[in-house]
Write the structure tokens for this entry.
Amino acid sequence: MKHLLINLIALLTALTATAQIPARVKAAADRVKASPALQVTFNANGRPGSMLLGDGGKFALVMGDIQVYFDGKTQWAYSAADKEVTILNPTADELADANPASILSTLSSAFKGSKVKGETYRLTPLSKSSDLAEVTIAFPGSGIWPQSMTIVASGGSLSISDLKFSPLKAKKPQSSFQFKAPKGTTITDLR
């Protein structure tokens, strides 16, 4: 599930300009990139969640008892159910697999897309070795932000609905993308 959540973050930040991505999807991606910060709420497989997206690939994801933060250097993954946080400074390979900023650089050249029906678009990877098999993005009529997405990956599928985007006018401070462990939390520091 964590990998699918990271793919969600990646897709919300990474649908970048390419001749192979439909114009409607490119326009939404350009709006994401133009925002100094972006607050997103959603339901993923029926579970409510929220994300704060910042510059430089920074993000904060809260979904039930799972929280993942990345401040551009350090990543924290917290499970409230386990009362455990894992801290790491991802390597370039780990970033390529988990960091939205890294995935951003590959999606622009790694996917093609087409209109499926109405304002629904299907994106598929150009490489057969991609973890993502396909992404379907639906827009409401003339709305500028996607309303739902379905991500099919090697680890399963994730259905994201009720997407609501709120662009913020100013960058968020670094502390917004850092995690402070509650007392009694087991800390596994892999830095």
